What we know:
This protein has 431 residues and is an all-beta fold. The chain has one domain: Methylamine Dehydrogenase, Chain H (7 Propeller). Helix content is 0%, strand content 41%. The protein contains no helices and 36 strands. The strands form ten sheets. Strands 4-36-35-34 form a four-stranded antiparallel β-sheet, with no helix packed on it. A four-stranded antiparallel β-sheet has the order 5-6-7-8, with no helix packed on it. Strand 20 and strand 21 form a beta hairpin. The N terminus is likely disordered.
Amino acid sequence: MNNIKNVTYIALFLLLASCSSQEKIDNLDKYEVVYSETPIVEVDETIKNHQITIPHAEINYQWPNSNMVLSKIPKNIQVTSSLNDHNTYQLFKGKDSPINLQRTPVIYKGTMYVMDYSSKLYAYSLNNLKQPKWVVKIEDASNELLGGGISVNNNIIVVTSGSNIVTAFALDGTEIWKQQLSNISRSIPNIKDNKMFINTIDNRLYCLSLTTGGIIWFYQGANENLHTLQSPSPIIHNNLVIHAFSLNEVSALNIDNGQLIWNSDLSNYKVSSTNINDVDLTPIISNSTIFVSSFAGDLSSINLKNGFVEWTRDKAGSSIATWNAGNHIYSVTKEGYLVATYTLTGSVQWAKKLEDMVPQKERKNISFTGPIMINGLLYVASSNGHLLKISINQGKLVKTVPIAKNNYAFPVVVGQTLYLLSKEGSLTIVY
């Protein structure tokens, strides 16, 4: 694959000290990222026949956050339709950008919310994807901002667009409040009851009132000059706010006052050979464990109660997405492998090269997004126009469904339909 190199120059990193609040793509500096000679995850042959558990399938009714906050999403989504047919709709005019930071659509109470690269927020009824119900321009945002996204709960939509402004809207598009933060936020808010949580690029985590936007508390983490443009969202578990800061630090805070409960420094357990320390993917909580994937490709298991790092596995993580179901974590790695990691020990049961599942003539510059579990199978979308249905047990290709050729954001499943939004603004629905 084109992205497997000993030295990769990544244009997704910035020195914050030299950045203004209105960063532009053209001003991105390049930093050298060094990988090992063979960036392939090591499979543990002793567990290759270990039984993989599949959770009970449940229908999913909404997708409330565009940054992989999966706490309310079934781990095995039930869909009774065949998912063999598709239609495509143009929701907004996309952007031909070298930076592939798509904003996943949000679906809430029968309405899909999407945001384009000029920071316009669109609302579409799922029953009519040809014409938006309403469109609003997010003020103080230009078409050169990066990151951000949408979160909706309790009938309030909260939006960030890569500036230092957070804006809340009613479901009819009426602005409710606007709050200015200390610095740029590329993160997507997470909402819990009457509170919302958002972080900035200088590692400040805010707790805001959902109804007024007022600051309830903030926590200042250790600052770091070098970050990815992608930023994880805080996640909530009971009375804890869990957030992955830069420098590979994961912290648990009291949800009411922001008091630090524990802090885990993953850089002490780093096993990858890259020179970037950052977590750019929202962690996943499963029972009493937090799973964290770093940009470098390390996948770590952390005890939720005390922050103890139980294991770290090199090249089993993802900067795209991870999916936890049953006793395994499934990841699409930067090198293009689909990996199944046993959650108890961190051993890799299988790893499959995804480009081997598509015709050889279509492999140039290919990219993948996913995985997501539907009816006990893993679904992965490719940029060359294939939706791959993959077996859980051995990682073997079960079926390929043709879809539109695009670079897609993470797949979203609500009701009986799978939705794929491209950076060009086209929405492919699979049913």
